[in-house]
């Protein structure tokens, strides 16, 4: 059975992506989360409510030992299943001007986004390479495309994800594994709930924040057979704010 692992699927974009992948492709979804089990259970309930299947898989993406223990343990118990789709979605912001940025805020953002991508992808890609099939979709950001003041750490992390996407895509294309990134602009979620939407939306040609569902449809397309010839791409989804 084909499965999709979505990191940070308890809330926001990750939840919408998990629900959409189950709906569109009938994939069994591994709903990863860091600490918010109740929210992860809501994601699972939504998947099941639509007639899909899934399970929770707790690990902190920045901890390699935890990632390996969770994924290797799961694989031992599920020899008939294959994680054919990986969505590296987990991410955080710790905004502030660079001159005053504490080292911890730099490290936490980079460790979750970039080291997290390394940890989870290193584990999951081994089986994809053996099976000569796979879809890896990395959630970047407009911040990694253009750079955003007050987000030097986050822009660095998302820029690294974009560059890693392009490199890895070239390494694994012969094994029929595609690696792409999506770069959302402002999307309504917990991450953006404290921003001044009325003020910020004036900068967006579409004059609104995006919805998590809209990003989920794009990710779902990239996970589909129809996207087999797209790899190493970064697709902007930002209401026209930057391209
Ligand atoms: P969110 O609502 O804050 O949700 C973040 C998710 O990441 C939660 O499920 C959280 O799990 C999980 N997470 C955080 N740290 C983790 C860790 N160490 N290990 C595993 N999971 C972890 O954020 P969001 O807006 O949905 O953002 C999702 C992704 O989209 C991020 O990569 C973000 O950078 C990117 N993005 C968002 C926007 C936007 O406007 N919202 C724009 C561009 C890009 P818990 O619930 O357990 O804490």
TrEMBL record:
Residues 2-190 form the Ketoreductase domain. GO terms for molecular function: oxidoreductase activity. Belongs to the short-chain dehydrogenases/reductases (SDR) family. Coiled coil: none annotated. Keywords: Oxidoreductase. This is 3-oxoacyl-[acyl-carrier protein] reductase. The keyword Chloroplast does not apply. InterPro entries: KR_dom, NAD(P)-bd_dom_sf, SDR, SDR_fam. It comes from the Bacteria.
């Amino acid at each position: 059975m084909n499965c999709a692992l979505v990191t940070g699927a308890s809330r926001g974009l990750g939840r919408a992506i998990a629900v959409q992948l189950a709906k569109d492709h009938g994939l069994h979804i591994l709903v990863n989360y860091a600490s918010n089990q109740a929210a992860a259970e809501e994601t699972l309930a939504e998947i099941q409510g639509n007639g899909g299947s899934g399970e929770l898989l707790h690990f902190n993406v920045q901890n390699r030992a935890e990632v390996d223990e969770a994924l290797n343990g799961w694989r031992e118990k599920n020899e008939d299943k294959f994680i054919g789709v990986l969505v590296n979605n987990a991410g955080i912001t710790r905004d502030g001007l660079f001159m005053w940025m504490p080292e911890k805020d730099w490290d936490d953002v980079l460790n979750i986004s970039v080291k997290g991508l390394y940890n989870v992808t290193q584990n999951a890609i081994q089986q994809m390479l053996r099976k000569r099939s796979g879809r890896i979709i990395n959630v970047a950001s407009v911040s990694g495309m253009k750079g955003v003041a007050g987000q030097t750490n986050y822009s660095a992390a998302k820029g690294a994800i974009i560059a890693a996407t392009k490199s890895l895509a070239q390494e694994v294309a012969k094994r029929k594994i595609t690696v792409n990134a999506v770069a959302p602009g402002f999307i309504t979620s917990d991450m953006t709930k404290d921003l001044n939407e009325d003020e910020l939306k004036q900068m967006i040609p579409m004059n609104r924040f995006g919805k998590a569902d809209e990003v989920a449809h794009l990710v779902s397309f990239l996970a589909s057979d129809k996207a087999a010839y797209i790899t190493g791409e970064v697709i902007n989804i930002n209401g026209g704010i930057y391209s």
